[in-house]
Amino acid sequence: MSAFVSRKVSDQTADRSIRLWLGNGALVVSILYVLLFAFYAAAQGDVFGLQPMNDLANDTLPLALAAAGGTVVMLTGGFDLSVAGVISLVNVCIATQIGDGPLNALWGLLLAILIGLAVGMVNGALVAFGKLQSIASTLATMIVCSGLAIVVLDAPGGNVSDFIADNATDPILGVFPAAGAIALVIVLLWLVVRSTAFGVAIYAVGADETAASLAGVPVLRTKFLAYSLGGICYGLAGFMLSAVTATGSPSAGTPFLLLMFAAIAIGGTSFAGGYGGPIGSMVGAALLVLLQKALFSAGVSSFYTVIFQGAIMILAVLVGGISASIAAGRSR
Amino acid sequence: MTKTSPSEHATAAPVPEASAKATAARSGFRIGPEGWTTLALFGLTVFMILASRLISSGFGSWQQAQAILLLSSFTIVLGFGQGLVILIGGLDLSVGVVMTLGGILAYRWIGTSLVALFWAIPCILLVTGCVGAINGLGATLLRLPPFIMTLATSLIIYGVFLGFTGGQPRGVASPALTSAYTSTFAGLPVILWLLLIFIILATLVQSHSSFGRRLYAVGTSPMAAYIAGLPVRLLIVAAYAISGATSGLAGILLVGYATGATLTMGQSYLLPSVAAVVVGGASILGGRGTYLATVGGALLLTTLSTIIEALGLAEGWRTVIYGLVIMLALLALRENMGIGWALTPKFRNTASRSRPGGAGHKPNKTGGNG
């Protein structure tokens, strides 16, 4: 599928393809997802209708979009903390500045993308051309964005227009969840991007910056574009979050910070860069969201829920790591 | 492998080859770029405190400087453990929750008793140190990304004490701990003397002990350190254990300062602990950074937020200015820090860290950049 495009495959054995499938982070975490979904279905009962599926897709999409963006940056070997600030800023802007109606909704979507792009470009400029550490510069932009979010709206409130709240979250033509369609579009877009020179460059820069540079890959430009692309994804995540919650909060993005990195790790992307992909991260995000819902519907009390979340996180990453080493054809 | 044992850490044993290389590289840093970074951080802090007179007449005084020192004591203590973990190439996201754990235990165990102080503090440091060691074992034996391991541990621990306390920690803030912040000795609050001792001891451990040198070696190139015979896993676990213990200590101190404990008391100190280390010029990839620079980073960040607090602006704009000043400070200090690894490959590639012999490149790296 997608995640192992940059993977060096040296073994010539017949079971190579099996190993590759096993090593695909997206596949392993998808299997875990199906298992957890079976548990959720048993605990919840009514999960297969259009409405429950639609709700699940809506709850999943904001984190999945954020994780996809964070993965692009992570693939180049960087950490992007600005996600929390961008989502908060977009959320309060949508909740306070955007009126009702299709044209306003379009303007809101454009605004979300522009905010994300602007922050992403600042991050990219600081990291690629300013030569700062990614974690330090994105921490600073995150703080600036959180501050701006408080300037726009200093307490939870505001109101997302009905047009956005309804159309972005209801099933399209009453048959397919809009959130699911958006996720599919993002996956397809990534498959296109990945096959471009830029897509290959992202993996090359993350795997070995020197080698990439010597091979003629424009390292700085690739990093700059990766942060910009990540920012756009956070902007979209903020837009979808606003549509789902239909309200604004200056701290709306805060929970996304750690959850996004957890989703990326579960999805099998290497924190050192160069290996993995957004699709795995999106499934990882879906797994985290489903876990919360499943534990809630099973009636587990809140302090056990956090314990379970921690345990599942370790388990998912362990399973992913083991299958990746099997795929690499060596023992751990 | 057999010539190094845990007991050797404390003694000044013959330094293995890779460690010697790292030492040579490190002393180069200390006189060079990293020393300047530290000086620049302290200078900037003093300048900002003096310049704050312009904002308010009550500012720029010795009292204000003392208040800033008291406020930054938590980040300074946390920064040591976080700095060691970052030094070996990891990241500890559990410091906030472990700090809360230390606070809750101190609240519960010490109480008004003075005797309890002497058994409870070592016990708390042991418990929180064990939590840190678990992080280290997960990162080494299970090979989990430190990010995930420490995040998962903090979730689990948070769940455990949420269950145990029922959301409301019970106990009494120790008067002895509180008096460390309120009473003075030789003109300074007692806590500042204790903090000074802590900083001296921590600097000795990180920069002037064989244990510290080995951590630099592990952070520079785990593979080279392993080939040189260092107990790499043990050293990594030790760094995480120290981070757990310092988080617990910071929690104990916070109970004395805030005279109370809540379930979220440590959370707001997680990002500052990372920021202080990174502003201090340490590489997030490991192998570089000094504790004194971290102390400078913690002081700078606390001074910054205290002064911005006094500007009389709305919370949003204060936060914006805080972020912008951090950004500017990072850019301004950049030349001195010599972050070769983040630059174009003409300086050095980061990937060399993972290969044997990567350590050998290190001295050149800063040499060409200072």
Describe this structure in words.
The complex is a heterodimer of chains A (332) and B (370). Chain A is an all-alpha fold and 332 residues long. Chain A has one domain. Chain A is built from 14 helices and two strands, in the order H-H-H-H-H-H-H-E-E-H-H-H-H-H-H-H. Chain A starts with 15 loop residues before the first helix and ends with a helix. By secondary structure, chain B is an all-alpha fold. Chain B has one domain: ABC transporter involved in vitamin B12 uptake, BtuC (Orthogonal Bundle), CATH 1.10.3470. In chain B, 67% of the residues lie in helices and 1% in strands. Chain B has helices at residues 17-31, 33-51, 62-87, 95-109, 116-140, 146-165, 175-182, 190-208, 210-220, 222-227, 232-258, 270-279, 291-309, 315-337, 362-367; strands at residues 184-185, 188-189. Chain B is globular, with a radius of gyration of 21 Å.
